[in-house]
Amino acid sequence: MSISDPKSSASGGETNPLSSDDGCRDERRALLDEPEAFQPVRTLSTTGRSIVFFPESAFGPTNNCVGIGDVLRRRGNRVVFIIEESFAGTLEAKGFEERTIRLAPPPREPEEPGQFWKDFIRDTAPVFRKSSFEQLGEFVEPTWKALVDGARYVDDRLAEILAEVAPDVVVEDNVVAFPAIPASGRPWVRIVSCNPLEVKDPELPPTFSGLPVDDRSGWGEFRDEYARQVEEVQTSFSEFCIERGAPPLPMLELMYESPWLNLTIYPDELDYPRSRALGSTWRNLQTSVRGTDAPWSPPEPDGHALVYLSLGSLGSADVSLMRRLVAELADTPHRYIVSTGPQHAAYELAQNMIGEEFLPQTSVLPHVDAVITHGGNNTTTECMWFGKPMLVLPIFWDQHDNAQRVHETGFGVRLPTYAFVDGELGATLDRVLADDSLHARCAAAGSRLRERPGTTLAAELIERLATS
User: Fold this and answer.
1) Tell me: the pLDDT tens digits for 150-173?
2) Nearest CA-CA partner of 55 in 27, 25, 90, 23
3) CA nearest 84: which of 102, 60, 98?
4) Half-sphere exposure of residue 389, counting CA atoms within 13 Å on the CB side?
5) In which residue ranges of the chain is pLDDT below 50?
6) Residues 6+ apart with CB under 8 A from 414
7) CA–CA separation, 381 vs 86, rounded Å?
8) Across the beta sheet with 390-392, what order do the strands follow?
9) How far apart are alpha carbons 211 and 421 in whole angstroms?
10) What is residue 319's predicted lDDT score, i.e. its pLDDT?
11) Per-residue b/e over 19-57, b at no fewer than 16 CB within 10 Å?
């Protein structure tokens, strides 16, 4: 039986897309549906402390922090989110306090959540067809500059909020520093919710490269080009941090290591063999899978494999790419659940597909047989948590690194997103679905990871810091 109605199933929200006002309301509703935890949260003695979360203004880091914040809130703590003002109301409706900020001067017209980054990605999308090396100058450096400009713009407001809320701990999930946080003197936590190559090691591939661990031939050239592109932005920003009462940034870094607590989010099965052990303040949560997505019911089984396709809210905005994926998969015997994203009205799904602009991803994943993904860190780690093999089509940033790591550790297959030949996508998916040993490895990893939820571990570590 084919799935013929692309509007007939799935509701709720996954990641950040552009939309009309109605779409914006749908997205917010999806982010705010009542929690449905995977496991009961242990309600140990509660601390009643004030915890501030400050995620990057995108749905990936925000959803990551929501998962941890939800555990802390249910353990009796006051949880306050600092969010970009286009997100106003999304966290408050979920039971959290909010404080809003701007990362740039107000626009003339009202914004959708994450509108700035949607526009930025749209304007730079042609670069995604280029190599990770070429993206350094045409995407990575402009992205760093935009992020740094936002940190400069918001610093006074951020200091004002921290003084007013007076948190016991500040939890930051950003890739650039915000000097008001270390300058406040309050204990703070760094969450690395991107690929762990963000924390560099000379014996590992360079960040954003997507280069293999066992072939160093391109490492040096990539590192040199990265340093050339980022040096001026980093030097100027470090000077600004000093002016604002924070320490200088480490060489070529745009983010501090917290002297209190630093959290990575990457399963051992995928993680890298470091030559330099991270210090005593570092802990790996393995995963951080939120329990707050809306329930989702799959279509009735009909003997065909069910595959989830999601390129994230930004990747799915590439209409030509989405059209090609739909065309390539239309003639396969499998069925598909598609996260159609902000440009969903610009293309049509095939008869063997259903989809929505936003899907409750952590409620969808348990029901599928495999995942076609862009390799965002949240999706990668969530697939590992649920034991789902991946076919990865990376587009930008750390997606290149996640795709390579999934491929070389044997938990999925990487394909060149814009350069695979006709028929290659479907043939590769067939191999993934038919590989019993791959499915067994994924299932074993998921079983291990679900024994110790990273959201609970993070809440315990943050509480410990708050009461120390």
Assistant:
1) 999 999 999 999 999 999 999 999
2) 90
3) 102
4) 26
5) 1-45
6) 392, 394, 403, 404, 406, 407
7) 27
8) 353-356, 335-339, 306-310, 370-373, 390-392, 412-414
9) 22
10) 86
11) beeebbebbbbbbbbebebeeebeeeeebebbbbbbbbb
